[in-house]
Specification:
Blueprint: H1 19-23, E1 32-38, E2 43-49, E3 60-67
Antiparallel strand pairs: 1-2, 2-3
Protein name: Phytase-like domain-containing protein
Amino acid sequence: MQLGAEAPVATKTELRNLLPDLAASKGYVLDEIEDFTIDAAGEAYMIADSDGVDGPSGESLFLKLGKL
């Protein structure tokens, strides 16, 4: 990109509401998606945690979301 050139603007599209996935365990709903990836086979994964502050115990969750 040349100096002074306008940077491209990214657009976003909501593919899936992750709250039902986070609530599926019927326990505390973790409040932060830390990482998200899609592997070569098209399977999506996410990692969430609660940081262990203000009451939550600090647990982490690794969740396979399947193909999106």
